[in-house]
């Protein structure tokens, strides 16, 4: 295994499940759970390779479409009694048979739909840096815990019932979430289980694990709150739950009264970020760099009988580019494609074009240095896996509304508009609204 593949994520996802039928393929926010896990792993800069261990054909197809490598799990390791450790061990065995031995394995659970890539990166750094052999995700709790004693009477677990301190004065305890475990690979192979050596806790902001249909409905509601909304809806959403209707297909009015009683604002404060927080400081943007296919276009191409390719672009995007340039904000198109149509569109827009680029992050870094613009002050708009390096490099990563899940996960904000439908204009409006409020009025 190359030094660029030191850290491998393994996501066990068997076809059978207890409690929730087809759980790993069920959708949260319109994305299958296994694909959400893959996207989180791919968005983590420290993870070099993502593997899904499964016995299911449909799970394998979804995982591959999401950008993961699939390891087929044997039937003996796909039963309801088989441990997750056995699936991880089998995946490592497959790699070892190819002469590939990672230093660190990140064992992730597909049923934790809100795992953040930054939490993964922080935990990986503690293992690769030698601070810990194992780091697992947990939430801090100051709860008063009880258990039933021998005669059925309640007994305090972490407190003396005769003395009632303030909850915040309790010594914090940590509840394992199951979302991820970062393991020294050699230590895991040696011991055969996930806890060994120096064990560290990665305290995450919130925990959500799916075990029931009710959990799925709540997770889906939260995911819809996290999804971007048009700017005009932001003020309304802060007013309460009427501004963001619960997904009709996801809510059982009889079973979920507590969910319906909670305001959208409260849920969003717990599990998401307000749009205003995401975009605070956008006035610092000094340059905009975009992909071409899937951003200026809808990612489709027409081919005539002579093999000549053509694409469709949106005039609204062209006007957005013009407004940015008039505001003194340069726009650059950075594309993997070498097709002349990219250069032709760039010439029409009057912007610089860098095309035929395989390493977008490196090319972007060179352009920024030559232009004297800090990467932190660049907005990059992408849509797919080949944009991940650039998205991670800049201070303002954006994804179009129909982007690959990994691109969405790596972005600071996901636009409401899909590629080719005015996404560039939407980004221009967001920037100009803060950068130069009078510019938007010209349109």
From TrEMBL:
Cofactor(s) recorded in Swiss-Prot or TrEMBL: Mg(2+)
Catalytic activity, as annotated: an N-acylneuraminate + CTP = a CMP-N-acyl-beta-neuraminate + diphosphate
InterPro entries in UniProt: CMP-NeuNAc_synthase, Cytidylyl_trans, HAD-like_sf, HAD_sf, KdsC_fam, Nucleotide-diphossugar_trans
Keyword Transferase: yes
Entry EC no(s): 2.7.7.43
Pathway it works in: Amino-sugar metabolism; N-acetylneuraminate metabolism
Alphabetic keyword roster: Hydrolase, Magnesium, Metal-binding, Nucleotidyltransferase, Transferase
A molecular-function term among this protein's GO annotations: N-acylneuraminate cytidylyltransferase activity
GO biological process, one term: N-acetylneuraminate metabolic process
Superkingdom to which the source organism belongs: Bacteria
Subunit structure: Homotetramer.
Family from the record: Belongs to the CMP-NeuNAc synthase family. Belongs to the KdsC family.
Name of the molecule in the record: N-acylneuraminate cytidylyltransferase
Phylogenetic placement of the source organism: Bacteria, Bacillati, Actinomycetota, Actinomycetes, Micrococcales
């Amino acid at each position: 295994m190359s030094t660029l593949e030191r850290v491998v994520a393994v996501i066990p996802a068997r076809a059978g499940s207890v409690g929730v039928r087809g759980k790993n393929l069920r959708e949260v926010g319109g994305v299958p759970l296994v694909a959400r896990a893959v996207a989180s792993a791919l968005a983590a800069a420290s993870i070099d390779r993502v593997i899904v261990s499964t016995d299911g054909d449909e799970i394998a197809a979804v995982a591959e479409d999401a950008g993961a490598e699939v390891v087929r799990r044997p039937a003996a390791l796909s039963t309801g009694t088989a441990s997750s450790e056995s699936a991880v061990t089998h995946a490592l065995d497959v790699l070892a048979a190819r002469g590939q031995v990672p230093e660190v394995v990140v064992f992730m659970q597909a049923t934790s739909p809100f795992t953040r890539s930054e939490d993964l990166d922080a935990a990986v750094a503690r293992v690769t840096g030698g601070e810990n052999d194992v780091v697992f995700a947990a939430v801090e709790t100051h709860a008063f815990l009880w258990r039933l004693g021998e005669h059925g009477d309640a007994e305090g677990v972490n407190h003396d019932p005769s003395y009632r301190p303030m909850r915040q004065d309790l010594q914090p305890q940590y509840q394992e979430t199951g979302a991820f475990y970062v393991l020294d690979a050699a230590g895991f192979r040696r011991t055969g289980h996930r806890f060994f050596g120096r064990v560290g806790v990665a305290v995450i902001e919130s925990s959500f694990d799916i075990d029931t249909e009710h959990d799925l409905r709540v997770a889906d509601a939260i995911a819809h709150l996290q999804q971007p909304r048009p700017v005009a809806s932001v003020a309304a959403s802060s007013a309460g739950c009427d501004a963001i209707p619960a997904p009709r297909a996801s809510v059982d009015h009889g079973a979920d009264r507590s969910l319906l009683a909670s305001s959208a604002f409260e849920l969003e404060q717990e599990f998401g970020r307000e749009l205003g927080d995401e975009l605070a400081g956008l006035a610092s943007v000094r340059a905009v760099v975009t992909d071409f296919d899937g951003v200026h276009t809808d990612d489709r191409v027409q081919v005539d009988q002579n093999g000549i390719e053509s694409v469709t672009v949106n005039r609204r995007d062209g006007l957005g580019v013009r407004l940015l340039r008039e505001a003194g904000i340069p726009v650059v198109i950075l594309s993997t494609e070498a097709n002349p149509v990219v250069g032709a569109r760039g010439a029409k827009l009057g912007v610089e074009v860098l095309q035929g680029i395989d390493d977008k992050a490196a090319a972007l870094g060179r352009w920024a240095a030559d232009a004297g613009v800090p990467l932190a002050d660049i907005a990059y708009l992408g849509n797919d896996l080949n944009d991940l390096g650039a998205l991670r490099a800049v201070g303002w990563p954006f994804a179009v509304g129909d982007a690959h899940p990994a691109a969405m996960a790596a972005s600071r904000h996901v636009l409401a508009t899909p590629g080719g439908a005015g996404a560039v204009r939407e980004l221009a409006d967001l920037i100009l609204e803060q950068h130069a409020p009078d510019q938007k009025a010209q349109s």
